[in-house]
C-alpha cells in the first residue's frame, strides 16, 4: 500500500475536525455547554481525549470553531466572491440559498439555536477575544445595511436579525408547519423588507460595537 500523501493527511484531519464539531454541537445543544466535557465529546466521537487536543486547544476553542463555521457558511452565501461587499444581487441570492439550506438540514439549525440561547455560551461569544473573522463578517453585514440607505440602519439590523432568527428557529423545530406556498411568501417578504431596490446614496458609516455584535450573532 502506497503511503498517504500530505493532501490525504489533510483531508483526514479535516474529516476528524468536522466529526468533532458535529458531535460537540449535538452534546452542547442537548446536554448543555457547561455540562459537556471534552472527555464526553471524545467518547461519543470514538477517539481519545488526548487526540481531541490535537484539533482544538480547549472546549472554548471548540465552541468558537462551531460558531465560526456556521457564520462563515452564512457569509459564503452572502458574499460568495469574498470581495468584502454584499451587492443587491448577492443579497437576493442569499435568501434563495439559505431557504434551501435550511429546508435540507433543519436538524443542524435546531441544535445550533438550542446552543446559542444558553447564557454561558452567549457570555463566551461576547468576550472581546471573539474571533476576528466573525467580527469582520458582522461589519460586512452592517456595511450592507448602511449602503442600502435605510433611514435607521440599527433598527433594520434588529428587524432582520429578529425575523431571520425567529423564522429559522420555528422552521428548525417544526418544518411540517410550513407549506411550500408559505415559504415562498416569507422569502419574498424578506427580500422586500431588506433589499432596498433604489438606494439614494451611501449612508453614514457605522462601526460594530458590543450591542450591534449581539444583534448579529
What does the secondary structure layout of this molecule look like, with pairings?
Layout: H1 6-31, H2 38-44, H3 49-52, H4 59-78, H5 88-104, H6 106-116, H7 119-125, H8 132-147, H9 153-173, H10 180-194, H11 210-215
Helix pairs in contact: 1-4, 1-6, 5-10, 6-9
Kindly state the percentage of residues in helix. 55-70%
**Low-confidence runs:** none
Count of DSSP E strands?
0
Question: Roughly what fraction of the amino acids lie in strands?
Answer: under 5%
Can you write the helix and strand succession as a string?
Answer: HHHHHHHHHHH
Biggest pleated sheet: none
**What's the number of domains?**
2
Cα-based radius of gyration, to the nearest Å: 19 Å
Number of helices: 11
Oligomer: single chain
Q: What sort of overall outline do the alpha carbons produce when their principal axes are compared?
A: globular
By helix and strand content, what is the structural category? mainly alpha
Give the rounded overall mean pLDDT: 84
The first-to-last residue Cα distance is: 47 Å
Structural description of this entry:
By secondary structure, the protein is mainly α. It is globular, with a radius of gyration of 19 Å. The chain has 2 domains: about 1-55, Homeodomain-like (Arc Repressor Mutant, subunit A); about 60-215. The protein has 11 helices and no strands. About 70% of the residues lie in helices and about 0% in strands. Helix 1 (about 5-30) crosses helix 6 (about 105-115) and helix 5 packs antiparallel against helix 10 (about 180-195).
Short description:
By secondary structure, the chain is mainly alpha-helical.
Amino acid at each position: 500500500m502506497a503511503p498517504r500523501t500530505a493532501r490525504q493527511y489533510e483531508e483526514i484531519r479535516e474529516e476528524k475536525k468536522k466529526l468533532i464539531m458535529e458531535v460537540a454541537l449535538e452534546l452542547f445543544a442537548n446536554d448543555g455547554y457547561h455540562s459537556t466535557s471534552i472527555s464526553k465529546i471524545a467518547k461519543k466521537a470514538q477517539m481519545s481525549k488526548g487526540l481531541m487536543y490535537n484539533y482544538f486547544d480547549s472546549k472554548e476553542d471548540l465552541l468558537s470553531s462551531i460558531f465560526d463555521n456556521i457564520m462563515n457558511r452564512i457569509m459564503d452565501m452572502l458574499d460568495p466572491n469574498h470581495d468584502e461587499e454584499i451587492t443587491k444581487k448577492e443579497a437576493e441570492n442569499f435568501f434563495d440559498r439559505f431557504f434551501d439550506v435550511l429546508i435540507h438540514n433543519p436538524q443542524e439549525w435546531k441544535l445550533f439555536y438550542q446552543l446559542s440561547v444558553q447564557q454561558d455560551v452567549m457570555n463566551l461569544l461576547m468576550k472581546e477575544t471573539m474571533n476576528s473573522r466573525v467580527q469582520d463578517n458582522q461589519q460586512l453585514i452592517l456595511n450592507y445595511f448602511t449602503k442600502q440607505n435605510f433611514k435607521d440602519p440599527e433598527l433594520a439590523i434588529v428587524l432582520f436579525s429578529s425575523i431571520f432568527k425567529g423564522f429559522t428557529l420555528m422552521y428548525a423545530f417544526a418544518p411540517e408547519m410550513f407549506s411550500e406556498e408559505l415559504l415562498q411568501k416569507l422569502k419574498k417578504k424578506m427580500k422586500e423588507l431588506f433589499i432596498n431596490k433604489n438606494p439614494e446614496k451611501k449612508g453614514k458609516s457605522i462601526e460594530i460595537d458590543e450591542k450591534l455584535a449581539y444583534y448579529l450573532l
